[in-house]
Description:
It contains twelve helices and 19 strands. The protein has helices at 10-26, 67-81, 91-94, 105-110, 135-139, 156-170, 174-186, 224-227, 233-245, 253-259, 325-339, 355-358; strands spanning 31-38, 41-49, 62-63, 203-205, 212-214, 230-231, 273-275, 280-284, 287-296, 299-306, 311-317, 362-366, 369-375, 381-385, 393-397, 403-405, 414-419, 425-430, 433-435. The radius of gyration is 25 Å and the shape is globular.
Amino acid sequence: MTTPHEELLPTTRRTLLHRIATAQTEGRAPSLVAAVARDGKVVWNGARNMVDGHAPDENVQYRIGSITKTFTAVLVMRLRDEGLLDLRDPLEKHLPGTGAGEATIADLLAHTGGLAAETPGEWWERTPGTTRPELTDVLGEQPFRHPVGRRFHYSNPGYTLLGSLVEAVRGASWEDVLRREVLEPLGLDRTSSQPQAPHAGGWAVHPWADVMMPEPVEDLGLMASAGQLWSTTADLARFACFLATGDERVLGAESVREMRTPSAPSQPESWDRSYGLGLDLLRWEGLSLAGHTGSLPGFLAGLWVSEQEGVAAVALANCTSGPLVAMLAADLVKIVVEAEPRIPEPWRPLPEVDEKVLELAGPWYWGTQVLALRLSADGGVEIGPLSGVGRQARFRSNGDGTWTGLDGYYAGELLRPVRRADGSVSHLDLGSFVFTREPYDAGAPVPGGVDPEGWRGF
Length: 458
């Protein structure tokens, strides 16, 4: 039961229903289901079906294809957070003998490992996994198509390697690890590697006639970690909320933020689309979205979440092609964001403040450019231009009077206040840049020095 402020307005609900109804009709999908979550709660479910009175609900399973990859990425990030591996490690260190071991774990997560997009031989999505019993069958004799780390090239075999990596480090099957470490803690009890009733059947719809043919359902074997899962809109909406905020039982907020941070170059088909660590990233219609799409014969899936707006949407259909469910899910986010803008939390003062940090707040100069340092509610600081465009970033506290950049140009860079012998602040050092209280302060160690005659007219 939602509280009044969580419920969507009737006009918004009707607009959402109209959007999925249009997608199902125009895309000629046997059925289509969708859900929207806001601020961590599922606030709307919708469905359209070709059989009157028998529309599927939020608990009917559909195959979700490559959204599976995001679940696999979460498992890998857990291994990193536990100190069992480093994302910079070459695969060979933990999973030797694959022939693709020079690619790092980060490369595989971000699809920059240079591996082939698909497996050799018959189309893996429509053939049983028993035809590929070993990793050599997945990779082939020449697994690489590009130099490692040079470009984004989507690779299904790359995520097969990551699933095998999870199994090697955990000493258990990918499916068992996923259930124990992600599905059960998050309460995703309708997400599974095999279909569980009630579930939709997969269909191919003829491109030039309104007739259908059932698609085969194959167990993908080693490729499971790239695309095996079945799920529901209810489960995926909850999973999308987790991708926005994190959950300490699975991955904390910092780790899911890292997954949402671009790790690969912009994708060739769109300068507004890139890839993080197991997450597709999209800037569209003023929204910054993170999520994934998926497809297998008979099924289409799309999931997007806007962390800034607190809105997530999922759309699933049981046809091989037809409705553009990725754009549909993005549209559902946009509908809610525009119809019911997020109401900000009331302003509240900080519960406490360190005087040594407070004295750093205010204007600073990098040469002649003026920037402002502000304290944030989470104990960090923010730096950005007072007006116009310029470099800005958030910084987290290191607990020792310094801060590390979280985003923007200064991501990973150290911010350090430098004090004089009497304890007063001389300047800020940020990745070798000197920020001073006055433009080109002669009393600070400005690189290159300051003209001794100072400022003058012409």
